[in-house]
Write a structure and sequence with these properties.
Blueprint: E1 4-8, E2 18-22, H1 32-41, H2 43-51, E3 60-64, E4 72-76, H3 89-106, E5 111-114, H4 126-140, E6 146-151, H5 154-171
Parallel strand pairs: 1-6, 2-4, 2-5, 5-6
Antiparallel strand pairs: 3-4
Helix pairs in contact: 3-4, 4-5
The structure holds ligand AR6.
Ligand AR6 binds at residues 10-12, 22-24, 30-34, 36, 78, 115-122, 150, 152-153, 156.
């Protein structure tokens, strides 16, 4: 659990074995962190993503990192929190994290960084994002040297830290 670090900043700058992308089902790029990753990784990422033939909500697929410092990109698709037709959103969001960790382990990756999956355009509330992201990080922490949970906004960073600090205090 001590190898879990919550940081604030731009995930595309990180030098890790894998960064996780908050993609959409097409895997062909978009706005938010997805747009930033595709812009910086370059055209080779667009070509590799085309070959993957999309990704279902909660599933994860892997590519190289191309022009990024990160060696790999794990692409996963969060549920749209505003979509009233989906009644298992928490389970699907949990699957995004667990399937990303699974894929990282299968590829022997030891350092991984997640953004707050779904917490932007897809509107996952930040307290739910913090709980699921941190709970899943704790479950997987023994398999990694370092897990970064990357927040982009001050408010998200403080809510993530609050949740993790509460858990750490409970364990003292
Ligand atoms: N580094 C770290 N976090 C970031 C960055 C960055 N460079 N940029 C944004 N964030 P979002 P979603 C945070 O909207 O909600 C795309 O169009 C952001 O503050 O990127 O899963 C896809 O193609 C938020 O906390 O992803 C899909 O269509 C988090 O990343 C859709 O958006 C996720 O926000 C996916 O929506």
């Amino acid at each position: 659990m001590n190898n879990i670090e919550i940081i604030i900043g731009d995930i595309t700058e990180l030098d890790v074995d894998a960064i996780v992308n908050a993609a959409n089902q097409s895997l062909l790029g978009g706005g938010g962190v997805d747009g930033a990753i595709h812009r910086k990784a370059g055209i080779e990422l667009d070509l590799a993503c085309k070959e993957l033939c999309g990704c279902q909500v909660g599933e994860a697929k892997i590519t190289l990192g191309y022009n990024l410092k990160a060696k790999h990109i794990i692409h996963t698709v969060a549920p749209k929190w505003f979509d009233v037709r989906i009644n298992n959103k928490e389970e699907l969001l949990k699957n995004c994290y667990s399937n990303s960790y699974k894929l990282a382990k299968e590829n022997n990756l030891k350092t991984i960084a997640f953004p707050c999956l779904g917490a932007g355009i897809y509107q996952v509330p930040i307290d739910i994002s913090a709980k699921i992201s941190i709970d899943e990080a704790i479950k997987n922490s023994d398999s990694f040297d370092k897990i970064y949970l990357v927040c982009f906004k001050e408010n998200d960073y403080s809510i993530y830290n609050q949740y993790l600090n509460n858990l750490r205090n409970l364990l003292l």
